[in-house]
Amino acid sequence: MHQGVSLLLDNPVYVIGSAAPADLVLGDADVAEQHVRLRFSVEHVAIEALGGDVTVFDSLGQRRVVNVGHGQRISLPVELLVGQSRLCLRSTRSARAIPAVSRRLVLLKWPALAALLLLVTCATAFAFRAPAESARHSIADPVPGSSVPGKNAPTLSQARSWLEGALQDARLTQLRIEEQGGQLSVEGAFPAAQKSSWLQIQQAFDTRFGQHIVLTPNVQASAAIAAPRVRFQAVWFGRNPYVIDEHGKRVYPGALLPDNWRLESIEGNQVRLVRGDERFAFTL
């Protein structure tokens, strides 16, 4: 396809890259296989840099860079630089002069999630991972495991509760969940060996809540953290929790431990330690 081509994006999440399994494939230079993930929500889009940096120009012309492993939620319209490709995203809500698009949105009943993608630089190759019709779902044929927009929409509290449970089950409790503007973000670092666990959680969240709540990841894989050289003989989880160290002394949250570790908290079934940006949890 050539420059100036426009496409209607009527799914809540798209991955753009240079090869499958990206949803949209670009053949321009400097585009990673899975370069960026876009999550649409009402008049906003969450931009997640997966395989390369993404340059963003907002409606005021202000420039910012979303580095690999980070995300940014921004209002539409917006322009993106993905490698050598320039992509323009705008909401179809303002496109009243395009009746064909409006009718299409009414039929799909997804006016808040649809966006128009305009390729304004040379796109030497462009393809869909699957036929457009197979990726589109109507009210009569909802996505398994997801809710119909406008009906039984999950709350932010429900989404956060599910995410907290998923992180705990995957032993990723060092990651922090933040709320902002009715959306969620996850921040922190995890061992490289747990990257697949994090990706599975992210995909499961998209399936359950992606049509209503945006999850912006500000996480990165780090080198494996060696287990702290501490020994606990017992743990008290009751009122004023504490641990009994190897010398038989009570140690309360906030106390310093060997190798500059600090006892951060004792709650649930975990004893959590922190050292700078490093976090370690003993699960009992």
Automatic annotation (TrEMBL):
Boundaries of every YscD-like Bon-like domain copy: 159-219
Stretches assigned to the YscD cytoplasmic domain: 2-75
Alphabetical keyword list: Membrane, Transmembrane, Transmembrane helix
TM region(s), chain numbering: 106-128
Residue stretches making up the YscD/Y4YQ C-terminal domain: 233-281
Top-level division of the source organism's lineage: Bacteria
Coiled coil: none
Name under which the protein is recorded: SMAD/FHA domain protein
